[in-house]
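Contributing new complexes? Match this layout with FE2/S2 (inorganic) cluster.
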Amino acid sequence: MVVCHCNVVSDREIRAEILTGALDADDVAARCDAGTRCGGCRPVIDALLAEAGVSIRRAFAAA
Ligand code: FES
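Output block (do not edit by hand):
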């Protein structure tokens, strides 16, 4: 499913970036361009990050 229509980035691509270390929506944007234009897909990117438990990983990364 396409999540970022501006840059034609799928949920699969975003999940792959999260699995390989993206820690927030800015990180996802830097890696695959999702969310770099209108920003309308950012809530979905945030939801994918939350679904993957990134907030927990982020807490460990900051420690
Ligand atoms: S839909 Fe992703 S930046 Fe516009």
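Reviewers usually confirm one structural detail per submission. For this one: Strands lie at 2-4, 9-10.
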